[in-house]
Each structure stands twice: as structure tokens, then as C-alpha cells.
Amino acid sequence: MPPGKRAFDLCVAAMITPVVLPMILIIALVILIRDGRPVFFAGERMKTPTQGFRLWKFRTMRADPADTGATGGHKSARITPMGRWLRRRRLDELPQLLNLWRGDVSVVGPRPPLRLHVERFPDLYGEVLKSRPGLTGLATILCARHEEWQLARTKTADETEAIYARTCAPRKARIDLIYQRNRSLCFDLAIIRGTLVLLARQAKGAARPPAVNLR
What we know:
Elements: H1 3-35, E1 40-46, E2 52-58, H2 81-88, H3 97-102, E3 106-108, H4 115-120, H5 122-128, E4 134-136, H6 138-151, H7 157-182, H8 185-203
Parallel strand pairs: 3-4
Antiparallel strand pairs: 1-2
Helix pairs in contact: 5-7, 6-7
């Protein structure tokens, strides 16, 4: 990661920690009271094509030791009421502040993929992961709602993975590579602003996904 980008990440982390940390503590207490332990979920994601790390989130589902792969409609029955509320507002991702401080992720970059997807598409993610994964990215702004809408209709893990592999992964990778070729501080600031707008719309319950067509 370029030193300037890491310095920017640390500045952002320092600015948001006084606000985010109390929110993390309050939400953790509510989850503990309502749903019990564990409060947090640490899933493996990839920093490089060969190096994994633990990405922290609030637990939003009932535990399943066999859980793997992308999240789709086949997992919806396991989402707790509290988890559904957190997911709608993206508050389940607040614990990734720790990953930002540790340098596992940058503020802006491609969302870190699962190991199984990196191993399934090595050429694709070999290029994407030349950029440090991020808390948000260009693909997040352009594809997040559309991807959720597509995967929410799936009934089985195989169906979810088939749709993710056929449409979601290639589409997001193309957008991540556009970001990689045009990366700059101004671009990062624009993506952060776009993310805040997206979060505000999601919190209001926007029903329709944005149209996405990159072909």
C-alpha cells in the first residue's frame, strides 16, 4: 500500500474512532442481551491472492458451522431481527474499524473476497487484489444494491454461488479495475461521499436496486 494512502487511512480512522467506538459498544451490548454470544463474527477474507485475514462484523445470523460461500436468500431464515436491522443500515460492519487500524483494509478499495472465490477465479482476483481491499469501493456504490437484489431470490447455496460466479464477481472485478487504473485522493473522496449517500438511501429503505449495465 502506498505510504500516502496508509496515512490517509490512519487519519480517517483517528477521526471516526471517537464516534464509531461508542456505537460499537452500545450495539455489542444490545446484541449480547437480545441474542447472546457470540457478539462478533470474524470471517476469513483475502488481503492478497495468498494472504488471508479475519474481517470483523457484528453477528447477524444464527450460527451454522457448515456456513460458507456468498450470502443469499438461502441464508435469510438465519438472520436475526436485530441482524436484519443492522444489515439494512450497514451497522454490522462497524467492527471493521479494527481492520482499518490494523492495515488489513484501506478506507477505499475492492471489498475483500472469500478464499474460495479467489481460488476459483485466480486470474480475476490476482489483478483485483493488487489494490488493498477497502471498507468501501466503486463497486460497492454501483453494485451493492443490485447484487443484494439478485442474491436475495436464491433458494439454495448452489444457486447463490452460480449467480455470484456468473454475474456478480465479474461485474465487480471490472469496476474494481477501473478504480485501480484511476486511483487518486480525489477519487477516494468521491467514493466516500457516494458511499455516505448510498447508506442514507438504504437507511430510508429504498426498495428498487439501481440499474447496472457494464457490458
